[in-house]
Amino acid sequence: MSAKKSVASSLKNPVFSSDDAESRALVTDEYLGDQSSSSVNNDLNSILKQITKDSTPVSSKALKLGFPEEKDDECEDMQLFLNRRKHFFILSSAGKPIYSMHGSEDIIVGYMGLIQTIVSYFHLEETAEAGIGTGDLRSFKNGDVCFTFENRYPIILMGVSNMQETDVESTQQLDFLYNYLVTTLSKPHINKVFRQRESFDFRKLLGHADVACLNNICADLANNSNLGLIIGGLPCLKVKRHIRVKLEQILLRYTSPSVLYGLLLGPEGKLITVMRPRRHTLHTADLQLLFSMIFNTNTFKTSSTDKPEFQVNEEFWVPVCLPRFNSNGFLYAFIQFWQLQRDDALEKLGTGSADQSVNPDTTKMGLILLSPYKDQFYQVRDISKRIIDRIMESSTLYKELYLSMLTNTPPEGICPLISDFIFKSKKHAQYFLIKRDDDGEHERMLRYIYSRLHSAVVTNTLVSPQRSTKCNGENILQRKIITFDSSNFIKYTKWKVSSSQLEESFNMNARISSSPQKNDIVTGFVISTPSFELYMVRKGSDIDKKALAQTSKKIIKWCLKNEGRLFVSGGAVF
Amino acid sequence: MARPSVQNKRSSQSLFTPIASKEADLKIVLLGESAVGKSSLVTRFASNAFDADKESTIGAAFIVKKYYVTDPETNEVKLINFQIWDTAGQERYQSLAPMYYRNASVAIIVFDLTDISSLTKAEFWIAELEAYNREEHKIQILLVGNKSDLSKNENDNQISETVERLKVPYFKTSAKEGTGVDELFKYIVDSIDDGIFVESRETLDLDQKSKKSSCC
Questions:
Q1: What is the ipTM of this complex?
Q2: Range(s) of the domain holding residue A329
Q3: What is the dotted CATH code of the domain comprising B9-215?
């Protein structure tokens, strides 16, 4: 079936076919409705009322809901290579390969040369015409396949996507990959090696861990599996406000010239709090890069047990360059993880002994201290020890942190109709996530819907540039009114799950589940305002629009009311 | 096959940990080409485990390991607090190396028995450390050829020539199978100068505890 089609399409489209012959979509869905509303000057009630008034347009357009996982490979099969839905290439300006997500050396070498030729052709053309070299080729489209370029002399990046992403998103992805190289090596180092020899083989500089990181970042981008990268923010651990304050007081007790920034992390890189000097902020993008380095390799993990988990018996001292902070120099990251689930500590609290069935990483905390000095490891280590001791000594802190890691549900009645949601605070560039299920298929569906909804927000933002408003969380609460203007945006989309393939895979795996079942309706909803974004997913029976509107209102109110619990604001500033 | 992790630390600590009368801190640094097995050696020594899928070290890792030795004649228990720097082998981290070896007592220079080019890097490190060594602070240098499980002794002639020329103690290990690792660390423990041992904090703690309890 699809093999034949893909040969045809690859003939028409010689570089990359848009059809994935290797694997079929897990769920093919009927597109039920899509509705967006922007430029509304009204309060939340009336904007939500509006969607309930409008009739849902029904379109026959089919959508693939959820993709098969795509991972890096060094496959020699040209056809498979051409059928990938996502490619990333990194090469030197001289055309030497640095990294490719897919394909064997033999396959990629030719493409690298081609990419280099295309990029330098446009570079020269533009330079000749405009007299300055600023008009590089950014992107072009061939059918559904989008090609995006980033020329960051002495490095060139190209992305190929068949995932209906916007140019903006694709460019951001290339930017992230480029910055990852800067994070590991720093800009001067990259420039130096190519200045010495233009044909330098950059791969010599990258270790297994770097390549593993690049592979994992690319896989995240191809599978929408890093929500922080999709919606642009950092995940946060929900903790009582006074607990965060207490932690910040502890951090501030140990400020020292040896430490510039401090980060306290919960499981899955969820931010608990930060420490920073008054004159410097921490950039979200820098932290995403740092976390990518830590969470995407097994360098910081041990697999002496069955499953790799974060190493608690080692401390790490890692030079990192944070491009937004300073792309020319390194900071030195002291990284330590520790386990909260300890029998002795739990006994003291009377919460019973440790539950061995829980993934050990879900109850680990991490402390990262960033120092400007490479030779102050022992000083920083000493500070880290004291901070960790203080946290573990306090039974209040210990108990609250431990419990917030194990429970992550909003109070009953807040969102009975919705299985999953993300609330992102734009001011803090942080998000809070409610996930009801860890089922793989469900998660894949979620990622897809979140990324589609985010795409819609991005596209809309481009059409109507944001105006700044005075809309701030507290005001809204007091007035119980959210002022909408052209920068507000609501969209909701429904898919009908109607695939026979789904039923088959469903039976094969014998899952009782939360995976979409035949005739289920999946509803994705996003509301974007200047201060926050709310993404919701509902799955199961069709949902009444009025109920959808009411639910979203409830969630927004709850999140705004609990802002101090959900997000780190400011952190420990010294 | 990798050996399973043998010890449950919690129980072994609480049940069998002896009380040492003397203790000493010992700083060790591992240096050598990338992917020769430095981290694996440390993991084998510190947790008696092997991780086949381990990716390269980024920067460096600092590992603390308590190690008890009992004098067979006097039955005296001594505690050695190993402080081990496991460094990344890649070229780009080379400039950080002095920070790791500056205060070290022992440097374990590792190369891969199956990849003779990694011996050149080992020679480089030995030369650098010897140039650094002073009368007042000498780093003891040990050379380790790792991955003996994979080696077919193909490079033996060249290795023994080099070892003879360098005049450093030489060990063959397999971090994967665990062979030679005990011997390596036993050698390190045996060559510790008795003068660096001090009265153990553990005994001090115990004294304090007993004093407290006696006064109540």
A1: 0.86
A2: 239-407
A3: 3.40.50.300
